[in-house]
Design a protein that fits this description.
single chain, mainly alpha, two-stranded antiparallel ribbon, extended, disordered N terminus
């Protein structure tokens, strides 16, 4: 059974990480950026949510007993973090800092 769980875990990680980032330049020269995560899997129910740390984190998110609202809130937090990461990565690419840091901090040749 552990082999089945391991295979499911790998497949689950693949589908959960599917993300589409789109950008559009609007008429006022504003940049509209959106993140779509069609297969995001977040946990707000189940056995693990009764553990003290998980229970406290869910309370930080919301005191609402409605499971669907809590799942939607957690999904929004995850998408917001992904959007922040994408914007950080894009700004590092545009400024040249990403390549510069890789060149400076890369491991020396063997």
């Amino acid at each position: 059974s552990s082999g089945i769980n391991a295979e499911y875990g790998i497949a689950q990680a693949g589908t959960s990480s599917m993300t589409l980032v789109t950008m559009e330049c609007l008429e006022q020269r504003d940049l509209y950026v959106s993140v779509t995560m069609p297969c995001i899997e977040v946990g707000t129910v189940g056995g693990g949510t009764s553990l003290p740390a998980q229970k406290n984190n869910l309370k930080l998110l919301s005191n609402n007993p409605d499971i669907q609202i809590n799942a939607a809130l957690l999904a929004q937090v995850v998408c917001g973090a992904v959007l922040a990461g994408e914007l950080s990565l894009l700004s590092a690419l545009c400024s040249g800092d990403l390549v510069k840091s890789h060149m400076e901090l890369n491991r020396p040749p063997a």
